[in-house]
Amino acid sequence: MDFDYTEAQQDLSALARDLLTDWSARNPHPTDTGFDPVLWTALSRAGLLEAALPERAGGTGFGLLEQCAILTEIGRTVAPAPYSTTIAVSAAAIAEFGAQAQIDHWLPSILQGAKTMAAALAREAPAFKAVEAGKDWILNGSQSAVAAASFADAYLIEAHSAAGPRLFILDRTTPGLTVTEQHVVNGTDAGLLTLTDVHLPDQNRLSPDGAAEWTRRRATLATCAHQLGVLERALELTCEYARTRKQFDKPIGSFQAVRQRLADAHIDVEAVRLTLWQAAWRESHSLPAAPELSVAKYWSAQAAHRVAHTAVHIHASTGIYLDYPLHRYFTAAKRSEFESAPATTHLRHLGHHLASTPA
After folding, report:
1. How far is it, in rounded angstroms, from Cα 114 to Cα 124?
2. Would 279 disulfide with which of 165, 224, 259, 292, CB 3.0-4.6 Å?
3. pTM score > 0.85 for this model?
4. Whole-angstrom Cα distance, residue 138 to residue 217?
């Protein structure tokens, strides 16, 4: 595999970094809603929302690797832009599996920066059930802490049916759908989704088998890519602080204990980077990637804990000041860690996969 950025990744990454760095400089204390409509519109006008979607969906034709490059830049500024849930997961799934009528109905307003989507995918067990009723479907269930749900205009729901997992698209105004805002560790974007006898026509279903599993894999990669940006920038801020903060007339970065923790954090960030790109490259080339995805998610969760705490410890009290940016990176990293299954779960999945693979 090739760890080097493609030309498209380089260009999109540079464009996203310029735009987001400028936005961050003008908005040093963003709200905790998880969504800035002005920024979302700016991303659309810059072509970043459409860039990594296929041409049949109104995109530029790039794909997964370019999505990950953009998500890493969003993570570096912890920007309130729901690119992960809207583009990398929901829009990508509709573009991949949707009929042309579904694509034409749902995606144009998203790519124009007018609407957003949230995705409620199965975690350890399915949260929603779908039952066929003639030509319609009836959905019931609830799922807590769905990212971007509090403001999303539409939802991609994974529900368990008699034939297996299925994906459904719901407008926010769908009768029987209730969204309750929730306050999680780093903001108020999350929501509790409750479906009570929601009737949907079959045209709201993404029909191909395997769509749900594909979408879950893309969600995992989106989480890891965003986490890479968060941890990368948190470590940079910490190194800058260690070079300038002095004790006993010496930079604290010259102390052996501080250097060791920074070195360990650097190794963790590089592990997130390498495992992300290995999994993303294999997925983008339609190669089996189950073990690589488990390893990438393991490192994303484990490194989040270690790097985030190292950053705060080296900053000391400065690290938790609300007028200093580091606390935003700490809470973003911790949320991703909490939302991921326990690291041991990913190792168990990896072990099961390796045990079932012929030697």
Report:
1. 33
2. 292
3. yes
4. 26
3 state SS of 56: helix
Beta bridge partners of 158: 167
Residue-wise pLDDT tens digits, 17-37: 999 999 999 999 898 999 999
Residue that is written with structure tokens 């067990």 in the block: 125
Give the model confidence (pLDDT) of 197-256 as tens digits: 999 999 999 988 899 999 999 999 999 999 999 999 999 999 999 999 989 999 999 999
The answer to whether 97 touches 135, Cβ cutoff 8 Å, is no
For residues 8 and 1, what is the distance between their CA atoms, to the nearest angstrom? 17
Cα dihedral 149, 177, 210, 297 sign: positive
| Alpha-carbon torsion (220, 224, 226, 230), positive or negative | positive
CA 196 from centroid of its chain's CA atoms? 27
Question: Beta partners for 137?
Answer: 132, 200
Mode of pairing for the β-strands spanning 154-161 and 117-120: parallel
Tell me the CA distances in angstroms from 128 to 117, 167, 206, one per residue in order.
Answer: 18, 10, 16
Across the strands, what pairs with 354?
none
